Fold each of these.
Amino acid sequence: MMQLITFDRYGDFLDQLAEMHRLRYRVFKERLDWDVQTSGDMEIDEFDALHPAYLLQPAANGQLQGCVRLLPSTGPTMLRDRFPVLLDGQPALHDPAVWESSRFALDVPAMAAKGPVGLAKATHELFTGMIEFGLACNLRKIVTVTDIRMERILRRAGWALERIGSPRPIGTTQAVAGYLEVSLDSLARVSSLGGLKRPVLWAPVATAAA
Amino acid sequence: MHRIFQTFIDSLAESSDEQALHLTMEAAASALDLACFAYLALPRASGGDARLISNYPTQWTMHYLQSHYERLDPVISQALSDSEPFEWGPGISSSTLSPQQLELLEDAAFFGIRYGFTIPIHDGRGAIAAVTYASQERGPVFQHCIARNGRVLQLMALYFHAHARRKVVSDRMVDGVALSRRELECLEWAARGKSAWDIGQIVGITRRTAAFHLDNAKAKLGVRSICQAVARLAASRPQVE
């Protein structure tokens, strides 16, 4: 079951937050070699100081295998403040019904269970968790800066990115910004393409987030 | 521990200046039986100023800065070379120290800073900050404290650093928009007639990266040309020629 951690519960989820920063280090520093801020085996950036909501995805054995960070578009976001060039001249959306996802990380072994379309089941679960969170908060869209590799994965999973601007080389990747639809339709599509039969987000927490 | 961390995080959220950040960290460190803390943000540009948020005795910090102890301090040199958190103090560090370094540590101990737990923070280029929790307790007491609270101390250090970095943003506001350090730096050179290639040479980045920062600055300011961006910069900073 995925966990939603909101600002008022950070203290209760101290250990899980530490695990999340470790997972992010493994993915963004060790695997992708991005220029990120690290300390020991943890990664953090200034957007973590904005009290984001975090979705955490434990594996069956309890270890953390996935996470994503969510921030309201009505405040500072990575697209607006770090990568505005990806807006291609358009204004950044400033809308309570739109949140930004960032630091999406998945660390699953190569032999991990795959879903019906060949992607790791964990990928579908994390996407489904994001849509469930969005629905619980009455969101219309989730905006995100991602790369074209992840864009292909999103399309395969049934959650195609609606591009805002054209891809641009940033660092070692081709980055692109876009919107992900939050709706019952997209939930049905993503969870069925993932072979998922029931909600992934821990229900009492999802309600509390609304 | 969970309550201490939540209180700390809540207090960070309310902190709008360095004084408030100072009080936030002091309260949390004290709740964990650690008397002293120091947050040191290293200078971003060579020749720039370091930022220190600390409750170390001012006599010590003044003496430290005047003697340029940061060049000698074995704790600083370890934090520069490795981002792994580490403990230090009599009987803990295994590296050999020069007579001058031993003298530095004796001076510090005189001011009540004998044992410490330092959490360095690095980015792609190297060390950018370090948080130290210090105590004058005897070794075993201090080490027990760190063993019990190490994880929350590390998380606190990271979140403190993230908040402290955000506060610096206000120095980089142009026309109501927050530019990053690099965006502002590149724009300031562009205001002096430098091309993206020139800026790359001066700042030590590629021409393409300099152009990227300038593009982002233009996008944030809602303008199409460097000319317009420079005009906005000049308008917000009368002293920029």
Note: The longest strand of chain A covers residues 64-72.
Amino acid sequence: MHALRLLSRGLPHLRAHEPGKVQPRGRAALARAVAEGKLEFTPAVRDEAFLCLDCKACSTACPSGVRVGTIMEFCRSQAQVFHPPSLPAGMLRDFILKRMLPSPALMETSMLPARLYQRLGLQWAARRLGINRFLPGVLAKMEGILPTLAPPLRQEIPEMIPALGKKRGRVAFFLGCAMSLVFPEVSRQTARILSQQGFDIVTPKDVKCCGAPHLAEGDRETARRLARINMDLFLSLGVDFIVTDCAGCGCALKEYEELMEGQDDHERVLRFRAKIRDISEFLAEVGIRTEELLPVPLSVTYHEPCHLVHGQGLSGPPRQVIRAIPGVELREMKESSWCCGMAGSFALKELETSLRILERKLANVRATGADLLVTANPGCHLQLAWGVRELGMKQPVLHVVELLGRSLPA
Amino acid sequence: MLSRTVIDHLRQKVGAGNVYHEREDLLVYGYDATPEIVGLPEVAVFPENREGLEAALEVSRQEGLAVTPRGAATGLSGGSTPTVGGMVLGLTRMNRILEIDEENLTATAEAGVITVDLFNAAAARGLFYPPDPGSQNVSTLGGNVAENAGGLRGLKYGVTRNYVMALSGLLYDGTEFIAGNKCVKDVAGYSLRDLLIGSEGTLGIITEVTVRLINPPQDKRTLLAYFRDIRTAGEAVSRIIAARIIPATLEIMDKTTINCVEDYAGIGLPREMGALLLIEVDGHPAVVAEEAEGVRKILEEVRADVIRQAANTEEAAQLTAARRTALSAVARVSPTTILEDATVPRSRLAETFTEIERLKEKYGIRVATFGHAGDGNLHPTAVTDERNREEIEKVHAFFSDLYEKVLSMGGTVSGEHGIGIAKKGYLLRQFGEGGIGVMRRIKKSFDPDGRLNPGKIFFDEGVSAGLKIPGVTNG
């Protein structure tokens, strides 16, 4: 057990005086006890597996290389076996994981009510009247966190976008669900940047959900099904790189190797894995062409998504991209790599804890006095933007590519 | 099993959120950082203040529970592992720094304060709390005191004992004690304070600690030396000490350790070398320059293969960090890591290394050796798997033989990790029945019923008499 003894430091919502089972060492101990038959897989064990943010900060901190986040994900999949949800809850879960998420068309349809709600001015009215105050916590958060929606990008973006200027190569763009549905403007910028930087872009319409929600919820079976489809699709495009602008997708795609162990042709999975790049990782690798960039004279501070800094070990590249933009002043916030509290659906399931974590993050943001708050993941983006609005802070929230997009010539 | 009434009573007195009795919760308080030694308490209580602690103790007395005090549980000898069920009494929620007295140059803190937090609080006032055990980012002051923790700076600055001025706390029977004060000199009565330091939670429960602070060093220089043969490194250490140079830090890492650390940190350590020495001299700039030169000369004399000076504070910090994570980096290699704490007089270092190499070959096991060479305090660490019983037997035999040699050289079986459960058998070898007998009498005078952290340090006739310890023969 001492491999994990040094871990309570530097993890987002843990202090050393927190109960033992909340700490990574404790959670791993519980999992081990269950595996060795010393403990039943009780509801408490299940709860701990889901209370874990899965921010993977422990993996970054652990010199002994123990990946507690992965252990927790596995526990979650076992939780379904030991404690199957009630019939309605189970049906909803199955619907979302097995029917809705794997079907882009179904997801796009399901967004229509929310879009109508906004387009018809209902959201504006509801917010003016302060109706959120009367809603149960979860609904209030869900309502509040949704930004103004635009038509999903997946249908609109051309399957093939040509490079501008001197061509440097050809890449595939993995358009994630959240990006397409909730932040289409951001992904539009990603495509715009890739093109401006000299790359042909292929964006297949048949892309499926990367499987990140399934991994987080413990449905490894559906995750594998989606992985196979995505690997078939993207390996057939004949590109050297598969680029994504969602840290959550990037992390899940890079986890396919482990997910598919013993289930698929290992060499094929490795080939797929070798091509995956986060957009900042990609730009840092190929080098950013800066000759045409226009100055953006603003100060920014950068929140590091867990699935980028811990999940993919990428801390330098996003900063490299920010620094490449002329005129931008990067102000580092304290605890930049601490979780924002979104953690997938954690923010909706554990409102109190999520809020505590968010408040600490935003206090650090405020302390920088920066003009803009920049991040690289839709989940973080939603959570931070909601928090900034609720607390009346001045900083708009942008994705790194939106910042770079401002610098591109029209 | 404790009754519902007792649990409710505890919840009421100590705070509902501070009492744990469900199996999932108890399980995670059944271990510290020592492999193979695991227990299970009946209840775990984390008082936030003195009143809560007193109430918890009262309940223990009423129910006849053994009490095991617990800090961050990063200990390496089983000191905070509950051996006979009972109550785990956690001090981590009593974690306030109460005062930094800049006139008397002292700091007073509750036992649950994390070591590095105390260091930082003192540094913010331009003062220095030197003891820096490897676990300092996580371990608590109370735990440091109970084990008399050392650290990388121990060679020059001493250990926790050298900084404790006063301790307050409770005995198992509820008697309050205050041992020591802010006086620089005090010879009134027996020094109960000194008896409590290093008593591993078996004599009293420490709730508050007053430490002395000193001036931070003005300058520092970090040197690195690589050796093809680890015995030459041992030679270098002995000569540095003989030359009357006392570096702040004089650490060693053998080849196995170097490779584990390099796998984790990737900072460019030389994988083919037999050993490296990390040497830090600090103090007044003129002294630092002189000492650094003196060290360098000795390294050249023994013909170290490479001698380097850290170019800047960043590189120096990187190297020190690499040394601090040595244990954890070694722990990556294999599921079970058993490290020991053999300490010898410095003149016998080279001999000890020879013996370690010889025994490694004899038993055919993997051992990474690193540690505070300047103190003669080595941590030979077996890299193994507790599920491989055959190999574990060999590991235990290895350490048994090693300690035989260490004791014959006038060494000790524990330089800084304490005896806890893991080294009870070795303690008997070091002190004999007579010595242990005196210790038992002292224990009895503090804790007549033997309920405070039973089963630790020496075999007793009480509740834990029949306790079996892996790899150690009883009595």
Note: The CA atoms of residues 134 and 140 of chain A lie 8 Å apart.
Amino acid sequence: MQCLKIEELLSPYLDEVLSPPVREDVASHLAVCTNCREKFEALSEVVNCLKDLPEIAPPPEFSALVIAKVAADKNTGKAAIFKNFNRSNWARAFSLAAAFVLTLGVTALMYGMPGQWKSTPPVIVHREGTITDVQNDNDEHADTSVLEYIPLEELKLPGDGSSQGSSYSGTGVTVGNPEPASSIPGNGIPAPAGVPIASQKMAQKEGTIFQQVAYGQVPAASKESRNVVRSATLALSTEDPSVVPEKIADLADDNGGYLVPVDPENGTLAVKVPADRFKNVLSGIREIGDADTRRIEGKDVSEELYCYEDTLRELANEEQKLLIAMNSAKSPVESQAAQERLAKVQKDMERQKKLHSKLLNDTQLATIKINLR
Amino acid sequence: MQPADEILIERSKNGDMEAFEQLVRRYENKVYTVAYRFLGNHADASDLAQDTFLRLYHALPGFRGESSFMTWLYRITANACRDEIRRQQRYHVVSLDNETANSGDHFMSRVSGMIPSPEEVVERKEFNNMIQQCINGLSDEHRLILVMREVQGLSYEEIADILKCSLGTVKSRLSRARQAFKEKFNGQRELFGKDSRLAK
């Protein structure tokens, strides 16, 4: 075989994927041809260099980023239902809503709104039997729902009113006889007259639990303005790149941000700065050298944030139900089941809170990536 | 004792994110290394590796254990790399980091030199960086097949299956890719320094 032909076969020969007769031909040629043998050895050497390259560890937060991405992807899936709404769908939905409002308006004009003529509009707390059943099998109301009237202002608890409304619907317990009390100890909220004290305690307990778990550590996203994650990438040429990281770190610091060492060895830097200082810092970086803007991006993540908040609300509701169920379980098995479910729900909540918090943080801190040349 | 892959996979399939996170942590180095070797910079490698794990999450319900999990994950990773090439070709993406890596030899050497670490460690690091630059300088096609074979260790059959080409094509393309890499390597080795022990 000629050397030219052998040279083409050196790579598959190295990997031992040639058919036996061809392999033997190459081997016998290499045994006699010094030139081809040297080429084979050189090839083996470079291939070994590639194989010997070390494994690279990702940044420590990598797995958390992956989980965040998976969760965001799930949420986007939910939001896609609305994204897929085309113009005619929206028009139809709007017409339907308009027709409903019109009907409601006409009905209200004709018959008046429910409770319109009362001085204090009552709120109906629908107390379902599920937890009651667990509490007392002999309760005569065990299989029935009980309606109680509580004046609206007396139901108010500290925190977000709108969320409380949703948290109360469908949950609660049947209560015993009213006890006379002027206030509930320990919380400073005056007890409303005519509302059973146990009911108030439970309502407040639920409300407190709900607020702590759903909102305790998680500030809600802004509903009035859009929540945008800002980022930019610049290519920066300077005469002396070695002083640039320090200058950029100072600039970030002056604007309330900080330098993130992305890949300084390859000349890549990143800074995190408050979103409202984004433009200032960009201008500042451009003054350092000859900057070429490659990308400026603003990604609206409001939908994702709202999705997280909705999920958190749902989980908080479930948690509160489970807490009550656990306290009133009639057997250790029931209690154990509720406890296990509760642990899972709480874990999910923690994860959702982290993701929400990270995304919200991203909206407040813009990222500027700088490639030094 | 760490739970076996199979257990984590089953739990992940049932929506247990904690199990999935464990799976990610177990294989993140492997996937990240492939992404970095293929793209040549950490920022893009991180995006690609994250995308790979997202694909993995979606593909998990279809995993029946016919091959090892590692092999299966490597196929997903290789597919993600292949799709990245297609995406870049479609949008004519210019990687800023690659430009920096290709043109910033001097800067890189200076930065590496600034890190106070033992001489050998620095030299090895620079040598590895030099190899990475040689990979970065290859065409997409050559870079992909080289990473699949040398970094991931995929067989010729697996590469042919992922790239949807014949075994003969894999043999010839890999041979050309190695040749192209060898030429760049030899060129860089001279620049790297004749006195370096690693370059010899």
Note: The two ends of chain A are 50 Å apart (CA to CA).
